[in-house]
């Protein structure tokens, strides 16, 4: 999320036409088209955040700026050339790194919270704990995970939580 993304399409000699068909999980579909005989591009229902990376007659790649959760979905490129028709399909999955916070609850137990990540983060503790993480799903597809450290021993001072996520791992330490 927030980065740019480039989806490539087969670049062939003697291209007649190129079409990107975009079907997001949420919202309406859109198309980007190029006709070589008229040297003309066309767009239907596509946001300004996506366009051709370069000139479609030279490279039919699609670029998406500031990728958001709403860009997630199917992207199909169709190239028509003298040697045939070529299709490439992508399913774009958007990763949202969680925001990590840590605090002490009313009983003096460390609490680790990985907020609004996609997919849900995994929370682990450096020292063994019998914690069971709780997940809260949000309408936009993100998930907040909360884990409270419960020590087997009472002489624990500093506690470290590790948040594992495909967009990157994080850790935080607290003394309660």
TrEMBL record:
GO cellular component labels: external side of plasma membrane
Domain Ig-like residue range list: 1-93
Primary site of residence: membrane
UniProtKB keywords: Disulfide bond, Glycoprotein, Membrane, Receptor, Transmembrane, Transmembrane helix
Membrane topology qualifier: Single-pass membrane protein
Top-rank taxon, per record: Eukaryota
SUPFAM superfamilies: Immunoglobulin
Compartments, as annotated in UniProt: Membrane
A molecular-function term among this protein's GO annotations: signaling receptor activity
Record-level GO BP terms: regulation of neuroinflammatory response
Family from the record: Belongs to the CD200R family.
Protein name, entry field: MOR1B protein
């Amino acid at each position: 999320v927030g980065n740019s993304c480039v989806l490539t399409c087969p670049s062939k000699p003697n291209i007649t036409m190129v079409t990107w068909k975009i079907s997001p999980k949420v919202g309406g579909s859109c198309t980007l088209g190029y006709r070589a005989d008229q040297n003309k591009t066309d767009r239907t229902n596509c946001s300004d955040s996506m366009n051709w990376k370069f000139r479609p007659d030279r490279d039919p790649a699609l670029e998406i700026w500031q990728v958001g959760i709403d860009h997630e979905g199917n992207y199909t490129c169709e190239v028509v050339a003298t040697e045939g028709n070529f299709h490439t399909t992508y399913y774009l999955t958007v990763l949202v790194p969680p925001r990590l916070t840590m605090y002490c609850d009313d009983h003096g137990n460390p609490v680790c919270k990985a907020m609004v990540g996609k997919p849900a983060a995994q929370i682990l503790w450096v020292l063994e704990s019998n914690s069971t993480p709780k997940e809260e799903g949000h309408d936009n597809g993100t998930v907040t995970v909360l884990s409270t450290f419960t020590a087997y021993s009472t002489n624990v001072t500093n506690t470290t939580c590790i948040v594992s996520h495909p967009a990157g791992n994080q850790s935080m330490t607290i003394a309660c």
